[in-house]
């Protein structure tokens, strides 16, 4: 009896535990379904916003077309009126017309007639015929990011000597999330970091925010702990009436509100920050979620100044005098060969300098500068920071990715292990299209896992260009890379190349400047060192990284030799921008290459990898 009772008790306990597990599973299922429904709603909201944006852009283009047509019609009418006036003026000064006028006015006065005929006989300059000219377009406010944010200071004074330089042109777009609108109150530095991440509305004041923001109601409001401008007094100490009214206006419209503490004592802004839905800080001690400064690829990048770098190592004080506005700071960052920064320089300042490709230290060192640039980006970009912010506050952060599909032809099976090793160490690769003998398929899948591998047997009768076209049709990622199984690729090769798409406007990126190694001569060469970080007519085909859609629009010529030269020629014909990145991370390896010997600089007799790979 006791055994049966204990067994019953155990059964009851097990049943209760099972019921609790079932209840927990049901709760988790309900929570998962709720999250799924929320995600579906967010997706539908994003789709709807994209549709509305496309519709608005279409209407805007229609209005622009109509306005252009009206301008042309007005110009033609003005021209015809000027022609009529010219014809009338020409008639008046014609000799026969002047003789007629003289006869008419002097028929009763012989003296007047004689004078009139004498005057009519003199040649008179005829009026100049009018020319067609367009009607001047009324200047409109340019809302593109960076349009009103340009450098103005063109001189620097170094040890009493004035040096003239051409300011860095701040890019005017594009922005990363055109579907998202943010109202932002920020100092120039933070504004420069954020302006390319969404459609940004700035410049409103406590008096006119309702009128300005109503023109395009934002999805969120971001307020920095500003130290200047009309909002500084509103948010410091006791919250002002203006900021309270702004937050009430946002609350009535479901606009999310964010306070971003970036400087000054937290206590000075604590009362205002409490009125916001979300708070972030750059200060670890503040106790709020952290949102530190990060490099903004659109303005912190190694694109050079016109005229090259100033061949001096400057101190930070020489580089950044107090009077410079932030657009001029961006010019200074990329001006000298190196900057010697004192201890205690803010980390974000060092990162911005490094991201502009400037050596930090007592001497210029291109290898160290490249490694520092890579670290600055690896520490996070402002795009990634905004991803975190949007995820925290519950807004979708949809934006393009830069995932890569690699096309890897391996015509010689003896090169398989080397070729696979070059791909395995790359980051950002989600798919590899391998062409080769069927015997290498299993090994390729084994080494490249967990990446998706698409294998196609290589047909010796098919040209390299035709094979690449077949591979291109199989690619699914945003970017497509072509790699040569003979060459050496560093572990950061694709990451370095992919970075160029964050700050250039090119559809194709590669290397016109690179190291090469000739086995026969045991020589290391450097080709076109002046072509780093420039838009260029062509890049090496084995370093090609391109936007998939742009590459599909061009296609590859049905050639085995010279397919890349034909591709570059087609890019020039079609106006497709090609960008040459840095010279590091890649070595072209050949037994001999007479063309390369005549087109590159000899570095040394020895291995190229110590020079190329960082």
Q: What's the helix and strand layout?
A:
Layout: H1 2-93, H2 95-106, H3 110-121, E1 155-158, E2 161-164, E3 181-185, H4 188-194, E4 199-201, H5 209-214, E5 220-224, H6 232-235, H7 241-252, E6 256-261, H8 266-273, E7 278-281, E8 310-315, H9 316-319, H10 326-333, E9 336-340, H11 347-355, E10 359-360, H12 366-378, H13 382-393, E11 404-410, H14 416-424, E12 429-436, H15 441-448, E13 452-457, H16 464-474, E14 479-482, E15 488-489, H17 493-503, E16 508-510, E17 514-518, E18 523-527, E19 534-535, E20 545-547, H18 548-554, H19 563-574, E21 578-580, E22 586-590, H20 594-599, E23 600-605, H21 609-612
Organism: Nonomuraea roseola
Coiled coil: 2-87
Keywords: Coiled coil
